[in-house]
Fold each of these.
Amino acid sequence: MSTTVKGVIARTKGAEVELTDIVIPDPGANDVVVKIQSTGVCHTDLSYRDGDINDEYPFLLGHESAGVVEQIGEDVTHVEVGDFVVLNWRAVCGECRACRKGDTKNCFDTHNASKPMTLADGTELTAALGIGSFAEKTLVHEGQCTKVNPEADPAAVGLLGCGIMAGLGAAVNTGDIQIGESVAVFGLGGVGMSAISGAKLAGAAKIIAVDLDERKTEHAKEFGATHTITSKGMDEQQVIDKVRELTDGFGPDVTIDAVGIMPTWRQAFYSRDHAGRMVMVGVPNQTDQIEIPTIDFYSRGGSLKPAWYGDCLPERDFPAYTQLFENGQFPLDKFVSERIGLEDVEEAFETMKRGDVLRSVVIFDE
């Protein structure tokens, strides 16, 4: 029997979000209904609202979530009713070419729920990243549920579901930072700060945090930055020169673009060591082009890597980083800037755009 709950939708491009009734169908054979406890307000949700992802409106927004499994389909074996889970949008298929090679982090045929959630009038909703968790409950595939320590704070560990894992994974997995290496992170939102934390966790000796906003560069010290550059008023070459100066003229071993715009991309590309690794984890818009002289690409060694979801494997990484958080070794709770209600999502987007928070997190009543 279907269930009606409250949820936040984006009905049309650029319009303010709406809090309305959402119909959750009974789960299919491998589907799961999850009662949501927390959902982070991620920039990807704003991108869905503004039409920067696709135009499959209306969207049921929200995807950075933790909650409790409430109902399962007849063939579900991965979780049980009552399990505390973090939702993920990489439920690997196990059958595609990448999966069969054992390269599951590059699976692009991930599972989603077999049925759509709808508005009360039957209009089908497109769930953001296949999750749609700005709602009291949501319907997902069982593989989108990752069990973690049920004693952990949902507001904190739910952030592993997207942005924090993206930045953390960009440092630890994609960048493969080694003990004693130098790192520069460009852009200090939630993704950038988590890349700083990941670099510290990986044992980087020098971690340079770069941002236009002095508030953010100061804040980065709390997450592990050893050096900071407030780049407001500097041109790109001045930023590049300063980063290289801080690394004895060589440039960092690893640079991370956590914004996804061409100024930060170029700063990350040109400031790295001659054989350094550059990681792009910030999500670009659909019209940006990478334009550099071909000889500049050819004449540098190292590697250029995109970090899609921080190259994470949720079943491996979410429980591990939850445990590190519980041990006091990784500061997930520091990313929770404010706890808000479901009705406050539109205001949280404005707060995000002003750069006043790392994450606003929607908390649902028990």
Amino acid sequence: MPESVLLLSGGLDSATLAYTHRPDLTVTVDYGQCCADAEIQASAQIADQLNLEHEVIEVDCENLGAGTMAGQQETDLGDAPEWWPYRNQLVVTLVAMKVVRRGADRLLVGAVADDQSHADGEAEFFELMDSLLSFQEGDLGVVAPAIDRTTEEFVCEVNPPESLLGWTHSCTASNTACGECRSCKKRQRVLTRVY
């Protein structure tokens, strides 16, 4: 039986997708990012609240990272301090490797219009990843259902319970929300406007 799988980071976008799509499985990836523990904890709580199956993949790529998410100095290649080279390609590939054996046919990703300042956050990137995975054995496709909306638009449209989004973690610098990084400020701004 084909399954849908959600890449659940524990942030607002993927939590809202979990609420709207109720996938058969949610997967969080610890690839060595400094905020992995908080992302895993937030994702587990979100999955539990929605009665969704949740798994964690651990692959240590910390020494390959750059920027604040890796606890490293940022590079001049990315346009943001949290830029990590090829991160979305890595994470999508790792989840695909895990779930293709289950017979999953759709991998849902919580990318939104706000993410399109990075090449691997653009709609074209996810279309290319979909083509690449579909080309290979397993017939697994990649879908970014909210790619044409900002986080604020998506959350306002869906209006998930505040109790669900209260579990989210968006900080890219720490397991404890720093309140200063772009992601923390965005989360606070969206929650304040929506609720």
Amino acid sequence: MDGRCPYKLDVTGQDVHSEAKALQEQGSGIAMVELPGDVRGWVVVGHDLAVELLASPKVSKNPRAHWPAWISGEIGPDWPLASWPTMENMTTAYGEEHQRLRRPVVKAFTPKRVRAMQPYIERTVRQLLDHLAETTPGEMVDLKRNFSYQLPATVICDLFGVPEQDRAAVLRGGEKTPDSSLTPEEAEANIRDWQEQFGKLIAAKRAHPIDDLTSELVNADGDDRLTDNELIGTLFVALGAGSETVMNLVTHAVLKLLTHPGQRAMVEDGRASWDDVIEETLRLESPLNMLPLRFAVEDLHLDGVTVPKGDPILMGYGAIGRDPDIHGDSAGVWDITRSNKEHLSFGHGTHYCFGAPLARLEARIALPALFERFPGMRLAVKPEELDSQGTFIMNGHNALPVVLVEAPVPATAG
């Protein structure tokens, strides 16, 4: 190694962008950090290096094969980030095992199947907007909880057939796992909880299968058949990623439009598109700030820095989208007219997010419908008063308080 001191990450994630900038200033595209529990790790903060490592067989996502501290039990289920290496699914697999675990899920998210969901998503958005319209005029409402979260949570739970009465419990693990400040007791309890909840869901679908994705996975045959642990891990990542990340994408896009009226006007008069809004938001405000965990399969020699074999690596997507080597001096500016909106917020290579088409479709439907229904919507607080999500893993706010103002109803001749 080069002898540098690790940068101690703020487990409460109070200012993830300032932290990302400090890591980038180390100048090598990857920075040594101190993870919770005094665990040494690395964060990739440069775009080009991220592309290289995301596609490299020298980096693995399988802790059971390539993380000595996990294999030996030195790090266990009471580690604050233990849910990530605990789950057995495509996101913690390597090589052929990854392809085996990914295949049955990807079949459900083909572009054709996602496009067919458009009418259903449009109906869901209308229902949520109707509910928001019941708010007392002038009353503050948390748009993140009541719209940005409800939309993807409803869609993903409907897809996987999660009963209405069980949804809060099933999604709870996906909400807790990104919290980088969990205590050892909370970390262990969280793992027990989400394993129990998904175990119950699997048992119910095995006993009474219906036409949903959970039943398809539970009753798959041949090469697509998964063990119970793999089923639990697969459902955990699908429902968690399918709700938490889309929630932050929609919330950030709404906030940017409310605080950039000039650019909002460009979208409304056709000088820019909703796709411009979505892609620039994904670039500047990656829903995931730092994604755990990858592991060096061998010593990695990277631009004067050596990452020892077995060390954990996080992808710093929040920093990667703001890399000045790719986006210049304005890398930290939200500009929907930017010609190069390249980002890696859905990953790259074999682990590219299988839910990316669905996430984009949800945002593409939700955003114009929201602003058409409530054109006078405004923030209820100053932007600087918004609290962070409280973790270095996610990039978001605890809430998005707004005041809703509906479009006037056209007068009728009489």
